[in-house]
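**Backbone description:**
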Amino acid sequence: MKLLFDQNFSRHLAGRLADGFPESDHVLAMGLARATDREVWQFAREHDFMVVSKDDDFNELARLLGSPPKVIHLAIGNSTTTEVEAVLRSSIGSIREFNESPEALLVIGRGDR
C-alpha cells in the first residue's frame, strides 16, 4: 500500500509511516509541487498510489473518474503531523481492506475533535 500525501500534509509523513506504508511519498518529493489535482490524480493512477488529502476536490475526482487511484480524505481539521500519523497508524487494517475492495473508491476519516 503506497500512499501519496497531498500538499496539505507534512512531507515527513511518508518517512514516519514507512514501516506501515512502505514506498509512500509526498507530492513535493515526486516533483508535483505545482501540479493540479488532476495531474496528481493521474500520477497516483500511473504509479499505484492511494491519494491522502484534506482536499474535497479529490472526493469529486473519485466520484467522477472512479478508481484507481483510491482516495483517503482525512477531514481532521488542523492537526499536527503526530496526530495525522496516529490516525493513519490506527487505521492500517481498515486502509488495507479499503485498498483491496474493488468497489470502494473513497474513504473519509474524521477526527475526534
The helical segments are 13-16, 37-47, 56-65, 81-90, 92-100. The chain has one domain: 3-110.
